[in-house]
Amino acid sequence: MAHRTTFITSLRHLPFLAENEKIQRVVAKYPFKCPSYYLDLIDLSDKNDPLARIILPHEDELQEWEWGKLDPSNEKAYTVLPGLQHKYNSTALLLASNNCAGLCRYCFRKRLFIDGGRPERLEDIDEAARYIKAHPEITNVIISGGDSLMLSTSRLKEIIHKMRQIPHVGIIRLGTKVPAYYPHRILNDPEFLEVIRRYSTPEKRLYVIAHFDHPRELTPEALKACDLLMKAGAVVVNQTPIIRGVNDDPYVLAELFRKVSFAGIAPYYIFQCRPTIGNRPYAVPIEEGYQIFETARGLVSGLAKRARFTMSHEKGKVEILALTEEHIIFKFHRAANDEDTGKVLIYRRNPDAYWLDDYVEMISSHFLESDIFRPSYYV
Q1: Could you tell me how far CA 52 lies from the centroid of its own chain?
Q2: Of the four listed, 147, 184, 337, 375, which is most buried by Cβ atoms within 10 Å?
Q3: Sorting pLDDT into bands at 50, 70 and 90, what band is 80?
Q4: Contact between 178 and 101 (Cβ < 8 Å)
Q5: Mean pLDDT of 281-304
């Protein structure tokens, strides 16, 4: 790459953390990585700094009880080739990279970075292209990982080119937190922007799925990087999980919605933090998260409130639709089984629930005779 930055992966560069024995144990279990650019954005004098919360290890990660899994959405069940997942009928996911500019402490794929990672990265792009070509129902391809923009420009170009050779692939999405962590990767690489110009056409756009968690990440450099992507022809949208201590305040989340929409970046998904091992300190209960989300949406105008609050469950992408005094209402925004897409699930409320599975024993039959939610099924 034509651009360089310093990536900090050792606590010896951060003496205030290196002296903490518990933090040493955290990093021994869950690796640490932070770009020097991002470290400069953190107010190290503020023990509650939200950007520090995103990327610096915290002793609370050493939970003393078992919570979560390394593969909480059971991605291996939908892996058809190494590095290729086909969970939803029209969408293929390529784990093309096992590298990130920085390692989020709440990462749901931290299994890729533990003990050298597992053999999940895509290696044979031709084999993946053959699979996608043989499945004409696939119209969307997500290039992710890891972070798609941490691939070399030549490798990224190769993958995009091969996907563009498949007639039924209309959308290619690049999943990335590089605009927040490492905008200079975009600012200083005109060759990469030329790849965007070439392959994002009026008929078939490239989408960049950015990942800004907090308004302070939208620095002049980050906004310039997104502007260059859009001027090159990419459509840029933003997604983030609700993270304890980062954006679990409706006013902070509303400001994030405003700032990205002001910049022409559409708010896309707000995710429920997946129950991954080590992630418990960063998770917010579903019902609390819903109230934060809806309050934030109520504070902004229409173009800033386009996001949906969802969880990426093993059985599909489940949208959290509404709360009543007694019930919570979910809908399959997209299900692994196409027949379930659009179906509604109604449970009795459980303020301690962090995942759909936490509602299994809380069965609701109150609406069984209602026609309002058909077609649907109830559990």
Answers
A1: 18
A2: 147
A3: very high
A4: yes
A5: 97
pTM of the model: 0.93
Pairing of strands 140-144, 316-323: unpaired
Could you tell me what percent of the chain has a pLDDT over 70?
92
How would DSSP label each residue in 278-320?
T-GGG---HHHHHHHHHHHHTTS-GGG---EEEEEETTEEEEE
CATH 3.20.20.70 fits 75-314, yes or no: yes
Structure tokens at 88: 């939803």
What's 1's DSSP letter? -
- The Cα angle at residue 347 between residues 343 and 350, in degrees rounded to 5: 140
Q: What is the DSSP string of 24-82?
A: HHHHHHS---EEHHHHTTS-TT-TT-HHHHHHS--GGGS-SS---BSSTT-GGGGEEET
Greater confidence (66 vs 99) lies with 99
Residue 100: pLDDT above 90? yes
C-alpha closest to that of 240 among 107, 151, 115, 97: 107
The token duo for 168 is 């039924």
Domain with CATH 3.20.20.70 in the chain: 75-314
Q: Band of the pLDDT at 159, cuts 50, 70, 90?
A: very high
Task: Name the 3-class secondary structure at 182.
Answer: coil
